[in-house]
Amino acid sequence: MPNTKSAQKRLRQNEERRLRNRAVKSSLKTQLRKVREAVDSGELEKANAEFRVASKKLDQAGQKRVIHKNKASRTKSRLSRLLKTAKQKSAPQA
């Protein structure tokens, strides 16, 4: 247990931040899973909509330093590549 008042306050702040970051990360993982599931099931319109939401959440998490900015960017890039290849596969071959 912390001994000083400042250490007690720091403990309270850390707990609040930990819970907030955990909630953000959890919702982020759920959103990424929704995108991947939509792509796997072949629902490209739904996947596109879910990707836009996921992209926004990734940017917000990177901005607030919940995750690293480069990780957010890398994840967005991989998801967009996944969508692009799924669109190419579903397009009729001429």
Question: How would you sum up this structure in a few lines?
Answer:
The protein has 94 residues and is an all-alpha fold. The protein has three helices and no strands.
Structure description:
By secondary structure, the protein is mainly α. It has one domain: Ribosomal protein S20 (Methane Monooxygenase Hydroxylase, Chain G, domain 1, Up-down Bundle). Helix content is 84%, strand content 0%. The protein contains 3 helices and no strands. It starts with a helix and ends with a helix.
Main sheet? Answer: none
Uncertain residue ranges: none
Order of helices and strands: HHH
Strands, total number: 0
By secondary-structure content and strand pairing, the structural class works out as mainly alpha
Tell me the CATH topology.
Answer: Methane Monooxygenase Hydroxylase, Chain G, domain 1
Classify the beta-strand content into a percent band. under 5%
Distance N to C terminus: 70 Å
Rg calc: 18 Å
What's the number of structural domains? Answer: 1
List keywords for this structure.
3 helices; mainly alpha; elongated; 94 residues; Methane Monooxygenase Hydroxylase, Chain G, domain 1
